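Session log. Operator J.P. requested a structure for one protein chain; no other inputs attached. Running the standard single-chain path with token output.
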Amino acid sequence: MLNISTNYEYTTNYEWKNKTISQFNKIRRSQFLISDMKIYKIYTLFLAAVIVLSADAQVITQVDNSVKTSKDIKAGADRTKEYLPLLKGKAVAIVANQSSNIKNTHIVDSLISLGITIKKVFSPEHGLRGLVDAGKKIKSAKDAKTGLPIISLYGKNMKPAAADLKDVDIIIFDIQDVGVRFYTYLSTLHYVMEACAENNKELIVLDRPNPNGYYIDGPVMEDTYKSFLGLHPVPIVYGMTIGEYAQMINGESWLKGGVKCNLKVITLEGYSHSDFYQLPVRPSPNLPNMTSVYLYPSLGLFEGTVVSVGRGTDLPFQVIGHPTLQKTNYTFTPKPTSGAKDPKYNGQVCNGYNLYNFGTEYMKDTKKIYLYWLMGTYKNTADKANFFDENFNYHAGNATLQKQIIDGVDEDEIRKSWQEGLKKFKVIRKKYLLYKDFE
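Structure written below.
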């Protein structure tokens, strides 16, 4: 178990590599069986995985997945010489959560110790300590240690009010993103930028590596489905750091009224978009390890269905299941946990699939959103009329994907329907890259 404590008295328990290996060696390797869909793991000399859906086969070859850590890549927050001079003598507000550290110390503590005047902290979904359940509203409060006001940007107010910024000169944004459109920290960034532009405040974004920044995939969001799950016409996986993304929001005039934010990005050192980056801190309560982070773009779509993604278990975003699924090989029972106090199907046995091994060993190599599981579970669900809920199209970014799955369109055709949008997005994306690309 990796246990990191900061001077802010945050202690976050991670199920990163050391714990997950010992824990899940006890779980037999699973084969994912859904009706006529079978996944056979074939370990060859080159460790190839063959995934079979009906008559179609796809070979995934495991490549060199050398992982970089915070020892190899210097985050924007750690490059204090680049931004401390900009903060001296200024009143500063910070948009932060549990990932906002300078090395192992929370950025609030660090900057106060360096003589910077911090006036307040803004917190996103899951709160400043990253312990609040997904979707739960957060009330503003005071930090017990520093006495600083903590203003929630998730709940009643998603955007800093003019009164919140009246006594502030500069806002710092320092939050770890995971590179997925429906991960809501992007929307928080958007509204912070908008508030800064409207109130003549400077914004400094301290860049962090994108753990899913090595590929681009998924449908580009249509304007009809704008929500806090996605505000911009980008694919589900967009392959940009949060600093690059901020530049794109500005450059493409996506803020209300086309206003421009006075933006400065403190860049990373030693990062490229080909890197597989090991996060030092879990980015949110239900992404407890790198396996869940890699599976999230694919399994996040299940949040708009009747299927559980394992909230309330030891394997959130690593298992899927439902009480009525048939022909499965794994069961789990969601129970209240920190970060999932009232999980879907609380106390009910869910039949499903354990995707941990696949996510750990092969997900990085696919470099795409994996649709087999979504298509297969729909096919294996008795009550198809109620499989999707009203949130699915907001996760997908369109109504097309749901219709395609219902109509039995094969994956190749679904992917072809994404290509025109992806091609246009890649042209836009290129303008704002700060680091060597994977293409």
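Operator note: The two ends are 36 Å apart (CA to CA).
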